[in-house]
Design brief:
The complex is a heterodimer of chains A (78) and B (557).
Chain A: H1 8-18, H2 29-37, H3 50-64, H4 74-77
Chain B: E1 5-12, E2 23-29, E3 35-40, E4 45-46, H1 49-52, E5 56-59, E6 66-68, H2 74-77, H3 80-86, H4 88-96, E7 102-105, H5 107-119, E8 129-132, E9 139-141, E10 144-150, E11 159-164, E12 170-173, H6 190-197, E13 203-207, H7 220-232, E14 239-242, H8 249-269, E15 279-283, H9 285-296, H10 301-309, E16 315-317, H11 321-325, E17 331-335, H12 344-349, H13 358-362, E18 372-375, H14 384-396, E19 400-402, H15 422-435, E20 441-445, H16 449-461, E21 465-466, E22 474-476, E23 491-499, E24 509-517, E25 523-529, H17 542-556
Parallel strand pairs in B: 3-6, 6-7, 7-8, 12-13, 13-20, 14-17, 14-18, 15-16, 15-17, 18-19, 20-21
Antiparallel strand pairs in B: 1-2, 1-22, 2-3, 4-5, 5-23, 9-10, 10-11, 11-12, 23-24, 24-25
Helix pairs in contact in B: 5-9, 6-15, 7-8, 8-10, 15-16
The chains are: A mainly alpha (78), B alpha/beta (557).
Chain lengths: 78, 557
C-alpha cells in the first residue's frame, strides 16, 4: 500500500533515515514536500496542509531526539 | 423563576502543595436554570510516577466546548490531548454535525498545542478547531464577551482575559504573569490594562505563584548580563548549557548575550576587529520544536539579533554538518534536560548523545580543552537526586560545571521567573483599583494556600477586597461584590493519567477517576474513563514502521 501524507509516523521514520543531518528547526514546507515525494512507495496526489507537514516534522524531530517530557512542575516552568 | 447569576469554579490550580492542572470554569445561569460555560485553560499537574503511579493528573473534563488558553505551558494546555482521547466518540459525533471543540488561543499557543497533540498521538482529523486570538481584539463566545490583554511571562504571547458575562459581571483573570519587559512579542502594559479596567472589573483573579518573593520579578535583561559574565569566564572551550525549552524568551536572551559579548570583545581588540559570536547549537526535541514555533510566529531570532545588535548570529541543530565541523571553542550548545531526566544533557554526560560528544570535542586538542557545563535552571524540588547526579557525571568527565542552587545566592543570574512577585501583584492591584469604576474583589489563583494568602494580603493593602476560594468550590459572583461559595470540601476529584506502555514515544494512556483527600493528599481510585483508540495510524502499527524503514533503506541503497 502506498504511503500517504496521513502516514505521519511512517514518513517521519523514512525521512529520519534518508536525511539524518537536516536542520529541522528551519526546514521549510516546500523542502519537506520534495523530500517526501522522493520516498520510495510514497504516492499521494492530495495537497498536504500545514498541519500534515508540521506533524511529520515534529514526529521526525522526536525520532532524531527521543526524550522524556521535561520534568518540570508548573510553578517552575516559570 | 430562579435567580440568574454568574459563577466561577476552579477545577485545579489552587492545590495544597502543588501548582498545576489549571482549569477554571466561568458560567452564567439564567432565570430558567439554563447554564452556559466557558473554560479558561486545561492543564496537567506534575506527578512523580514512582510515588503516585501516574504520569500526571488533569482536572475533571470541562462542561463546555470552548476553551480559552492563556499560554502554551503544559500546566495550562497539557490536558487537551487527554480530553480529546476521553471524548473521542462524543466529539466524532459532533464533527459529523459540523460542531467541534474550539480552542481560543494566540498563534504561538496554537503551535505548542498542536505539537503536544501530535506528540500524544492524536490524529489530525481529530484536532479541535482553533480560533486565533490577539490582545486588544475582543470576541464573543457562548454568550460571553471576551477581551484578551497581553501579559509578560516566560513564553511569548501570553495573555490574560477580561470576561463579561451576559448579566454584565466583568472579571479579569491574569493567567501566569509578571510585569517585566519581554523580548518577544507584546508584554505587560500598565496603560492598556488600566484602559480595560476602566470599563469596570468586579472580580480579579491573580496568579499567586511567586507572590511570596519580594519586589517585582526580574526580566530577561538581567539574565543576559549573567550570561555575558559566563561567556567571559568560559574561554578556550565549548559551552554546554541546559534550558527549559518552553522558556522561549531565553533563546533570544542567549543569542543576544552571544552577540553582545562578541561585539564587546571585538571593540577591545581594535577598530578593525570583527565580532565573532559563538554559534548556538540546539540539541533536544523540545528546544528544536520551540524554535520552529518561534519562526512560524515571525520571531526569527537571527534577524532580530542582527537588527538589535548589528551582529550576525548563527543557530543550527546538533545533527548538522555545520555543527560538527565547528571548532569546539566556537560552540554554545543549548540543551534539554535541566533536571537530569532522559534528555540531551544526561545523554552527553553518559556518552550516549549521538550528536554531542565530549570525546569528539577533546579530540580537537591534546585533551586539555576545558569544557564548560552550565545548567541555566536551578534544581526543582523533587529532582534533587537526578540534578546532583547529572552535575557529578559531568564533573567525572572532567568538565567545569555550574549548577545554580535553588536555595542559596548564586554567582551568576541565569534565570528569571515568569511569575509575579509581591511587587507585580501590588502593581496590578493598584492599576485596577485606580481605574475600575466598580469595587473589585480579588481572588488569588494558581498557588498553594500560603501564596494565595499573600496575594490576599497585598490586595487588601492596596484597598481591594479579597477572598480565598478552595479548588472545586463553585463561587457565585453577584455584582454587589459579595461572593458566595460552599466551604468545607474534604476531597477533590482529579483524573490520573497513566501511560500504560511507559514509553513516551508510543504512549498508551489510561485515565482513572481519582478522589484526593485535601488534608492528607491521599488518593483513591474510584473508577476509570473508557475510550476507543484513535484511528489505525495512531495505534502505531509496528509492522508498518518496519516496512517504512525497509523502504527508506532501499532508497538509500
Amino acid at each position: 500500500m502506498a504511503l500517504k501524507w496521513s502516514d505521519t509516523e511512517d514518513l517521519a521514520q523514512a525521512l529520519a533515515q534518508l536525511y539524518p543531518d537536516v536542520d529541522l528547526s528551519v526546514l521549510e514546507h516546500d523542502e519537506l514536500r520534495e523530500m517526501v515525494a522522493g520516498i520510495e512507495g510514497f504516492d499521494d496526489p492530495t495537497e498536504p496542509d500545514e498541519d500534515d507537514m508540521e506533524a511529520v516534522i515534529v514526529t521526525w524531530i522526536d525520532i532524531l531526539y527521543p526524550e522524556e517530557d521535561e520534568h518540570v512542575k508548573s510553578g517552575d516552568i516559570d | 423563576m430562579a435567580e440568574n447569576y454568574t459563577s466561577w469554579k476552579s477545577a485545579g490550580g489552587n492545590n495544597a502543595d502543588h501548582i498545576g492542572g489549571n482549569g477554571y470554569e466561568f458560567s452564567y445561569t439564567d432565570e430558567n436554570g439554563e447554564k452556559k460555560s466557558i473554560q479558561v485553560d486545561y492543564g496537567s499537574l506534575f506527578s512523580n510516577k514512582e510515588e503516585t503511579g501516574y504520569d500526571c493528573f488533569i482536572p475533571t473534563m470541562p462542561n463546555c466546548d470552548d476553551i480559552l488558553i492563556t499560554h502554551g505551558h503544559a500546566d495550562h494546555i497539557g490536558g487537551i490531548p487527554h480530553l480529546l482521547n476521553m471524548k473521542r466518540e462524543e466529539l466524532a459525533a459532533k464533527r459529523e454535525n459540523g460542531e467541534n471543540l474550539t480552542i481560543h488561543c494566540t498563534a504561538f499557543a496554537e503551535k505548542m498545542i498542536k505539537n503536544n497533540l501530535t506528540g500524544s498521538g492524536i490524529p489530525k482529523d481529530e484536532f479541535p478547531e482553533f480560533d486565533i486570538i490577539e490582545p486588544g481584539k475582543p470576541f464573543e463566545v457562548n454568550g460571553f464577551k471576551v477581551e484578551p490583554f497581553a501579559v509578560s511571562h516566560s513564553i511569548p504571547d501570553a495573555v490574560g482575559f477580561v470576561i463579561e458575562s451576559p448579566d454584565g459581571t466583568r472579571v479579569m483573570t491574569t493567567g501566569d504573569f509578571k510585569t517585566a519587559e519581554v523580548p518577544l512579542g507584546k508584554g505587560w502594559d500598565d496603560e492598556k490594562v488600566g484602559a480595560i479596567a476602566s470599563k469596570g472589573i468586579d472580580y480579579l483573579f491573580i496568579d499567586s505563584t511567586s507572590s511570596v518573593q519580594q519586589g517585582e520579578t526580574i526580566g530577561e535583561a538581567q539574565v543576559k548580563d549573567g550570561l555575558k559574565e559566563i561567556l567571559k569566564n568560559s574561554q578556550g572551550g565549548p559551552v554546554i548549557s541546559g534550558v527549559i525549552s518552553s522558556s522561549c524568551h531565553r533563546l533570544h536572551t542567549i543569542a543576544t548575550a552571544l552577540a553582545e559579548e562578541a561585539l564587546e570583545k571585538a571593540e577591545k581588540e581594535g577598530p578593525d576587529a570583527e565580532p565573532k559570536p559563538r554559534t548556538m547549537i540546539l540539541d533536544g526535541a523540545s528546544v528544536i520544536a520551540a524554535r520552529r514555533a518561534l519562526n512560524a510566529c515571525g520571531y526569527k531570532l537571527e534577524d532580530m539579533i542582527k537588527e538589535e545588535t548589528g551582529v550576525d548570529i548563527q543557530i543550527v541543530t546538533s545533527n548538522t554538518k555545520k555543527a560538527l565541523e565547528l571548532p569546539p571553542e566556537e560552540r554554545f550548545y543549548v540543551c534539554t534536560g535541566t533536571q537530569g531526566e532522559e534528555a540531551s544533557l544526561l545523554k552527553i554526560a553518559e556518552d550516549r548523545n549521538k550528536n554531542v560528544s565530549l570525546e569528539e570535542m577533546r579530540s580537537w586538542s591534546d585533551g586539555d580543552m576545558p569544557i564548560y557545563v552550565y545548567d541555566l535552571q536551578s534544581c526543582i524540588p523533587g529532582s534533587e537526586e537526578k540534578h546532583q547526579a547529572l552535575e557529578e557525571k559531568f564533573k567525572e568527565q572532567g568538565c567545569i560545571t555550574y549548577f545554580p542552587s535553588r536555595y542559596k545566592p548564586n554567582k551568576y543570574t541565569v534565570h528569571a521567573s515568569g511569575h509575579a512577585g509581591a511587587g507585580d501583584v501590588a502593581r496590578i492591584c493598584k492599576v485596577v483599583s485606580e481605574n475600575s469604576p466598580r469595587p473589585t474583589m480579588v481572588v488569588p489563583i494558581h498557588g498553594d494556600p500560603g501564596q494565595r494568602r499573600n496575594v490576599m494580603k497585598i490586595a487588601q493593602e492596596n484597598g481591594l477586597n479579597a477572598c480565598i476560594v478552595p479548588n472545586m468550590a463553585e463561587m457565585k459572583m453577584p455584582k454587589d461584590g459579595r461572593p458566595v461559595w460552599q466551604d468545607g470540601r474534604k476531597t477533590e476529584e482529579w483524573i490520573g493519567v497513566n501511560d500504560a506502555n511507559n514509553d513516551f514515544r508510543r504512549p498508551y494512556f489510561r485515565y482513572d477517576k481519582i478522589l484526593m483527600n485535601v488534608e492528607t493528599q491521599e488518593r483513591k481510585k474510584i473508577g476509570y474513563y473508557k475510550y476507543p483508540s484513535a484511528s489505525k495510524k495512531l495505534a502505531y502499527d509496528h509492522n508498518q514502521i518496519a516496512a517504512a524503514k525497509i523502504i527508506a533503506k532501499s532508497h538509500l541503497r
